[in-house]
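Handoff note, outgoing to incoming analyst
You'll be picking up this chain. Sequence as last confirmed:
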Amino acid sequence: MAESHNEIGGEVPGFVLQARDVYVAGAVPAALAGLPPANADFTGRTADLSRIADVLRPSPEGAPVAVSSVAGLAGVGKTTLAVKSAHDAVGAGWFPGGALFVDMQGYSAGNRLDPGEALSMLLQALGVAAKHIPPALPAREVLYRSQLAGRKARVLVVVDNASSADQVRPLVPSAPHSVLVTSRHKLGDLHGARKIDLDVLPETEAVAMLDAAVRTANPGETSGRVMTT
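Most recent structure output, in case you need it:
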């Protein structure tokens, strides 16, 4: 005779009584510390950091969801700035619920994430088991926003390297949570977003950043090696 058993998943709010064996499946762990490490050599961008902080800083009850969009050319430092801003905001205690990060790879045709794939990743980071994630995009959106709505502590969602507003819209949470987006485009049709156009670093800041990188790579150096002409 084949052995059978009953299995209970998730939280068990009360008593469970059975004649023989009960198997309780552990909850799926959440991953709400998903930010990449901040660049230790980050320098400059004071005004840009301040503008992003103004958006991410907690607002009075009833304020709309905070959406910040950083746009600029490839290699200008959008991701580095966004990650630094996100770490600063989390460190300031503005997002006690943690931070989620997803790279949409919007400009890599072979690896570009569609919103459904991104939602699956975010839902699993929120502790939803893969088998409970619905296949249809609208249902994933509802589940994603419902998961976040059930969390009173603010969560920051960083959506990096998006190529269009269509990639981002399904990932925008409801208040009090916030989303920080980077893209090579301005995403002018992303409703309610505070736009930040990122330009190349001024010469003095670029030199300071390079000098910091040299010192990090060669900690024994006592004087900067970076020269300008």
